[in-house]
Amino acid sequence: MSASRPTGTGWVHIPGKLMMIEIYGDQVVGTNPGHVIFKSPVSGVSTTTTTRRPRSSGSSGAKVSAKWRAIPGRLTRISKGRSGVWGVNRNGYIYKLNSNGRSWTRIRGKLVQVSSGSSVWGVNKYGHIYRYRGGNRWQRIPGLLTNLDVSDSGHVWGVNRGGSIYRWTGRNWQHIGGRA
């Protein structure tokens, strides 16, 4: 897959360069290689724009647009879900975007990865897993992971250093066959 030849039939090239991207509701957030944070409303998406084949130039002709606006701050990881927009910076500091959409609140603790869904979970540099309890409090969850994701339905899945896949059952981690 490349910018000029994406696989599938439903890809539409959107101008901009991001290294990480998340979408929830009607807004996309992401960070670029310089860790600058951007957001854009989702506009122009319909069933007709998602089924056109890209032309050889990499443009599908679909009328999808993005109005990228920088958000102050710098993040290495970002996540957007029902619990809001959360991110971590290169020093591991954790931030939550305020309701004004322009400023951040620093949350106690240090993580290398954070995921926002029905709740907020994260992983620190040692692979320790945490769930946010509110009021700047984190609950350590047993296990070691390098990456995880939490859905808006409360499903939490993760992978460890060996590439093994796990699902949180609410009490422990269930190994899922296969490797990531």
Taking the sheet with the most strands, its summary is:
4 strands, antiparallel
Q: Helicity level, as a percent range?
A: under 10%
**Strand residues, percent:** over 45%
Strand order in the sheet with the most strands: 1-2-3-4
The total beta strand count reads 16
In N-to-C order, the SSE pattern is: EEEEEEEEEEEEEEEE
Helix/strand/pairing category: mainly beta
Task: Give unreliable regions as ranges.
Answer: 46-60
Report what the structure shows.
- By secondary structure, this protein is mainly beta.
- Helix content is 0%, strand content 48%.
- It has strands at 20-24, 27-31, 36-41, 69-74, 77-81, 84-88, 93-97, 104-110, 113-116, 120-123, 128-134, 137-144, 147-150, 156-159, 164-168, 173-179.
- The radius of gyration is 18 Å and the shape is globular.
- 27% of the residues are buried.
